[in-house]
Amino acid sequence: MGVKGLSTPIIRDSATAKNANIKKLLEKDATKNIIGIDMSILIVKALLGSPNSVSLYHSDPKQPLPEVTDKVVSSVKMYISEGYKAVCVFDGITHKLKAERAHVERYEKDQDMIMELENLYNIRIFDDEVSLRGSIDRVNTIRKKLCRTRADMIYDIKCELEKKFGEKVVCVCAPYEADHQLAALFRQNIIDYVHTIEVILSAWEQI
Fold it and tell me: Is 23 in the same domain as 77?
């Protein structure tokens, strides 16, 4: 899942590589209970699961989304309270292949939906209650589909995680996809488990 407006350097010197910093920090803990979390999964679930947050997302000017932050932090807290350390991985820039294929397929209808939403907003008179309810339902559906993870949401969540959990969490922005970064962290023996789409994978289950 791509996050617009969030980027990191694609190439780093090995001495300052983020993975090296992660490993150094996590080696302070003798227990091997480190879980890597695909944060986009938590963010999207929290955002789309709250009508109030969806409404705030579409406000103008742009508004903070504290309910989303609270839900995401609560999900991470579940692991922290069970004795895990968490590596929270956020998506980075959209690589060229995805931008030209999957990204186009996913977002190519956005402009059409924006236009439809504007037309629905401009309707002042409805034929009956059924038409009114149908228009409201359609507006809600479109607004959900147009919700995207924003850079300010990621920043707020990162700050709150570090404030609440300190060294029990490490926040990382992947160069591209979070799941690719999580796979690399697992292969380097930095993390033991991966939280992705409603699934928690252990080292044994991935072999």
Answer: yes
